[in-house]
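Summary for the steering committee. One of the milestones for this cycle was to obtain a three-dimensional model of the protein with adenosine-5'-triphosphate bound, which we needed before selecting residues for the alanine scan. The sequence and ligand used are listed below.
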Amino acid sequence: MEVENVHFVVKNKPLLQEINLKAKTGELWAIVGANGAGKSTLMKLLSKELVPTSGKISFHEKDLKKYNLKELAQKRAVLAQQNVITLSFTVHEIVLMGRYPFYESKPSQRDLSIVDHCLHKVGIIHFKDRMYPTLSGGEQQRVQLARTLAQIWEVREGFILLDEPTSGMDLLHQYETFQLAREMMQKGYGVIAVVHDLNFALQYADRILMLKKGKIFASGTPNEVLTGKNIKEAFGVSVRIIHPDDTPFPVIIPEASSVAVI
Ligand SMILES: Nc1ncnc2c1ncn2[C@@H]1O[C@H](COP(=O)(O)OP(=O)(O)OP(=O)(O)O)[C@@H](O)[C@H]1O
């Protein structure tokens, strides 16, 4: 997935400017930045929910504009930031929606077994017959993750776009979600995820794109991008980055004295 000099403007207000990104399959990109930096807007452009005002986005070397939605749905899956569903669908029905691009009127046995497999994978098979609106926020998020996986499960060189995939999840499920994202990446998928927790980004991403006020502030490996200086400038928080002997990655700790009490 390649983004070349993309700008996105709404009512004369530039939300994104000069965005460049080249994400390959077999790579996990984390998009980080303060609230309002433009992360979700970029994810919407990557998923074709929005169209750039100028610049170009290509997917597998073809202009994203030239894909129809079904074709795109068979190659990439999106977990959006907001997934409000109040209708009385069961968990199974929601996850089966991930298979819609692959069947006409009736799901095949294969579709149904992929759905079960993804429900197992995300640890929610016991919710299969529950009504979706009765689940907690974190549980609903796991259902949406299972739907996203079900959509992409048999796609070769597919892309998974995750906008805050762990929002509402407890610590264990956050870890499991990032492990799963890495597992998918190792299977040959491309993964691009908006990540708020910089320690998760540091631990799990291959590459990081840091946005500030709609522009790229830094891009590169976690160690290159997640420096104390960059974090201070992009988030307004001083941090200490420590290197414990018993972890293979550094740990970012906010300096309490630098955070203003609201
Ligand atoms: N349709 C719109 N019209 C005007 N402003 C918009 C529109 N959509 C988004 N914005 C603004 O663009 C900026 C970027 O929004 P975006 O949702 O991409 O931020 P974000 O980095 O994902 O933030 P968060 O971390 O809070 O989810 C915000 O200031 C938002 O208010």
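Key point for the committee: The domain at 1-75+156-224 is CATH 3.40.50.300 (Rossmann fold).
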